[in-house]
Automatic annotation (TrEMBL):
InterPro entries with a match to the protein in the record: CinA-like_C, CinA_C
Name this polypeptide is given: Competence/damage-inducible protein CinA domain
Record domain CinA C-terminal: where: 10-157
Highest taxon of the lineage: Bacteria
Record lineage: Bacteria, Bacillati, Actinomycetota, Actinomycetes, Actinomycetales
Organism: Actinobaculum massiliense ACS-171-V-Col2
Record-linked Pfam families: CinA
Length: 163
């Protein structure tokens, strides 16, 4: 399911290519859909290194190197966790830039957080930022809005890196 127009995602891919950057993705609530959004674009292999779907909390630690102590303290829906997921994806895939998603898609609360509570992050050569989202809607709408927000975050950082 392509959640952003192909033309917009293609612009992000071109922006990465123009800046000589590679991309990795670390996903939880989006379950690989963010990676799939990029894979829809012909030629993405020039920039996309890989994606890790770390849906389980312990996989965030074992695959991406997220602090187990932090996960115990805050749970997986946390800005520091999102930041560590993105940094871990950079390391895991040898990428210049990574995006991450972690949160509660719903239908109900999880880990003490309301449905629609989401953290996204970017790490690497374009800088680091974590962003808290409070999204409305059903599970699929929360996941789609998360992907759009992650793409927008990358776009903002690409624009700043190009100037």
């Amino acid at each position: 399911m392509l959640l952003e127009s192909s033309a917009e995602v293609a612009k992000l891919v071109k922006g990465l290519q123009d800046q000589g950057l590679t991309l990795a993705l670390a996903e939880s609530l989006t379950g690989g859909a963010l990676t799939a959004t990029f894979v829809e674009i012909p030629g993405v292999s020039a920039v996309l290194r890989g994606g890790a779907c770390t849906y389980a909390t312990d996989a965030k630690a074992s695959v991406l190197g997220v602090s187990g102590a932090r996960l115990t303290e805050t749970g997986p829906v946390d800005g520091v966790v999102a930041a560590q997921m993105a940094s871990g994806a950079c390391r895991l895939f040898g990428a210049d830039v990574a995006l991450s998603t972690t949160g509660v898609a719903g239908p109900g609360p999880s880990d003490g957080k309301d449905a629609g509570t989401v953290w996204i992050a970017i790490a690497g050569a374009l800088g680091a930022e974590e962003r808290l989202l409070h999204l409305e809607g059903e599970r699929d709408q929360v996941r789609a809005a998360t992907i759009c927000a992650a793409l927008a975050l990358l776009g903002e950082h690409l624009a700043a890196g190009a100037s």
